[in-house]
């Protein structure tokens, strides 16, 4: 029996995906060779890359709409840099909703003026700023859809005429959004998609090619698009597992299906957090994340007992981010509703 894995990332992946991935390590495609010992230019791997890119666009409803999907290296953190390198001429607008937005802002400042249109830093990022305005002359607006550390999630995205760029690392493929509103979406694989080691970037091609600076090849989105995400050796294993996970999601019924499951999981846990006087949520209710639920014990002396009960129930990865403490239950796509029920039962049994 596997553990109930609430880890924030790298995190739980579907069991059947892990099974198929482990088979491919020994014998991929029935060729008596491992996935990780064949050329990335070989026919079978080129087919994997193509399928992964197509599935990503298909699941988001962005096929044949001027978007490209590429798999890059360097984590979502590399995209903090690449977004600015490729798109920032003079001025960019950023919404600061957490640790990761803050890091994205830091990188963008290397390339031009950054207008922080709103920030929740003053309150430990425990809410999503609202009612901010985006300068019309900004090269783009950047936001983080789900704040993995604080446990907040943007429920409604602004209407703006400037390109909309979003770090969706921790909630991509988890809920239905009007993805056509976005001009560039990026996400590290290691939450809802696959193992660490690759980053999915979805780009509306028409926004590229508008900065004056020279962009080094490896940091240039156009270079990666032109070479079909094979400019250099891709993270073959991470891309393969991402492809399997995206296929798993498609077979289940895609984002509309998984969103319903995710809503049920979040409702189950937040209902208990609000009902049980021994627990308290730490972010504004209307901004609560359906992926990462953060909470604390109201009586800290129960910490050891609760931790032991969780461990005995096979619950893993419930500790909050090292910068905030408390607890964080990450409920990504592959986490079954049953695991949340086990956690809720432990919370109910705590006295
Ligand atoms: N953005 C968000 C929302 C994240 O949760 C993370 C990592 N947890 C990052 C960016 C950074 O990702 P990476 O470690 O892949 O660079």
TrEMBL record:
The protein's name in its UniProt record: Phosphoserine aminotransferase
BP GO terms, sorted: L-serine biosynthetic process; pyridoxine biosynthetic process
Domain Aminotransferase class V: 5-335
Subunit composition and interactions: Homodimer.
Protein source organism: Polaribacter vadi
EC assignment: 2.6.1.52
Location(s) in or outside the cell: Cytoplasm
Cofactor, how bound (note): Binds 1 pyridoxal phosphate per subunit.
Single GO cellular component term: cytoplasm
EC class: transferase
NCBIfam families assigned: PRK05355.1
The protein's annotated pathway: Amino-acid biosynthesis; L-serine biosynthesis; L-serine from 3-phospho-D-glycerate: step 2/3; Cofactor biosynthesis; pyridoxine 5'-phosphate biosynthesis; pyridoxine 5'-phosphate from D-erythrose 4-phosphate: step 3/5
Modified residues (N6-(pyridoxal phosphate)lysine): 191
Required co-factors: pyridoxal 5'-phosphate
């Amino acid at each position: 029996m596997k553990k109930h894995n609430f880890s924030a990332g790298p995190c739980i992946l579907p069991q059947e995906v892990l099974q198929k991935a482990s088979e491919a390590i020994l014998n991929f495609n029935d060729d008596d060779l491992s996935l990780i010992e064949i050329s990335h230019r070989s026919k079978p791997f080129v087919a994997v890359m193509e399928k992964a890119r197509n599935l990503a666009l298909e699941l988001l409803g962005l096929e044949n709409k001027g978007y490209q999907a590429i798999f890059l290296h360097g984590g979502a953190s590399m995209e903090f840099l690449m977004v600015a390198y490729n798109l920032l001429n003079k001025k960019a607008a950023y919404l600061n909703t957490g640790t990761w937005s803050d890091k994205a802002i830091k990188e963008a400042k290397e390339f031009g003026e950054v207008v922080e249109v709103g920030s929740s830093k003053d309150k430990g990022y425990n809410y999503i700023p609202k009612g901010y305005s985006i300068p019309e002359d900004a090269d783009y607006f950047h936001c983080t859809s789900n704040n993995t550390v604080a446990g907040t999630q943007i429920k409604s995205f602004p209407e703006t005429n400037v390109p909309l760029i979003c770090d969706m690392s921790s909630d991509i493929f988890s809920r239905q959004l009007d993805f056509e509103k976005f001009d560039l979406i990026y996400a590290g694989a290691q939450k809802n998609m696959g193992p660490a080691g690759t980053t999915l970037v979805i780009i509306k091609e028409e926004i590229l090619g508008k900065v004056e600076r020279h962009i080094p090849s490896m940091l240039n989105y156009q270079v990666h698009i032109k070479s079909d995400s094979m400019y250099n050796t891709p993270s073959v294993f991470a891309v393969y597992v991402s492809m399997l996970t995206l296929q798993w999601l498609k077979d289940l019924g895609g984002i509309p299906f998984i969103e319903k499951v995710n809503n049920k999981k979040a409702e189950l846990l937040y209902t208990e957090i609000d009902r049980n006087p021994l627990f308290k949520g730490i972010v504004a209710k209307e901004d609560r994340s359906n992926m990462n639920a953060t909470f604390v014990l109201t009586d800290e002396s129960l910490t050891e007992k609760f931790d032991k009960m969780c461990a005995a129930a096979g619950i893993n990865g419930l500790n909050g981010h090292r910068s905030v403490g408390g607890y964080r239950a990450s409920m990504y796509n592959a986490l079954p509703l049953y695991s949340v029920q086990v956690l809720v039962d432990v919370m109910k049994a705590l006295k």
